[in-house]
Write a structure and sequence with these properties.
4 helices, six-stranded mixed β-sheet, alpha+beta, 267 residues, single chain, 21% helix
Length: 267
């Protein structure tokens, strides 16, 4: 389990392990993504961030503007789908903190370069106006909707043909999570839902979301996919589902858990 902790953040050292990122890609050798300092050559333009301890070992993420020679570049989404729970936590946190470090090089209030970090927190301190810049976290809802023995599944235009998932979307300012569930489902597929129930959450590093998962029940309306967001959507029986995300992702977890509930009720 990855331990975030509140102790003073260490500097990179020989006993630590490192996750390497370049151009939004995770670097691997023979499918491994945790390295020692002897496995790569730190450079002057490399940026490193402490992300926590894993099995008692300090872990850092290092971001390169260009990948070092010899490494394989991997899309984060594919790696997350193929990882176990521990690897998911490591990669997700590493990518989010690398994004924060890259996107907060200047103070958003006064423009001063951010060169000082807090000793125990992931925060950059502006030495001009004293504001702290923490990693950005964007809450999103993701929902599995049930209608009798069927589940609502949809495919966005960015998903490959034949793969379906849940309705998801960002929470708007001034909106609570349940309101976001109702709005997003209505906006994307034109139906209304009821009996909204929280199920769990998961960080999702594209680039800094926190996915908050819910179950909901169909109330009324006909499926009408939003033309600019949803390529297709429909109802699938719980025992005849199409290709969906694997259980590593919260989407896969919601779909399988919801299908199991219906199966147990039907037994």
């Amino acid at each position: 389990m990855l331990e975030i902790g509140t102790n003073t953040h260490p500097s990179p050292h020989n006993e630590a392990r490192y996750i390497l990122i370049a151009k939004q890609k995770v670097l691997t050798l023979d499918k491994h993504f945790l390295f020692s300092l002897s496995d790569f050559h730190p450079s002057s333009d490399m940026r490193s961030v402490f992300i926590g301890q894993y099995e008692g070992i300090d872990i850092f993420v290092c971001r390169f503007p260009h990948p070092p020679k010899g490494f394989t570049e991997n899309g984060l989404r594919d790696m997350l789908f193929d990882s176990n729970e521990q690897e998911f936590d490591l990669l997700s946190r590493a990518h989010q903190l690398a994004t924060w470090d890259a996107d907060h090089q200047f103070c958003g209030r006064c423009g001063t370069p951010l060169i000082k970090k807090h000793e125990k927190e992931h925060a950059k301190l502006c030495q001009q106006c004293n504001i702290r810049h923490y990693p950005r976290i964007s809450p999103c809802i993701i929902v599995s909707v049930r209608k009798g023995n069927e589940l609502l599944l949809a495919r966005s235009f960015v998903m490959p043909e034949g793969r379906y998932s849940n309705i998801a979307g960002f929470v708007e300012a001034g909106e609570n999570l349940e309101q976001a569930v109702q709005r997003e489902i209505f906006e994307e597929v034109g139906i209304k839902v009821k009996n909204i129930r929280y199920q769990g959450s998961q960080p999702w590093s594209f680039p800094h979301q926190l996915m908050v998962g819910f179950f909901a029940e169909y109330e009324s309306g006909e499926i009408t996919p939003a033309p600019d967001e949803i390529a297709e959507a429909g109802w699938w029986r719980y025992d005849d589902l199409p290709n969906t995300p694997n259980p590593t992702s919260i989407s896969g977890q919601l779909i399988l858990t919801h299908a199991d509930i219906i199966a147990n009720e039907s037994a």
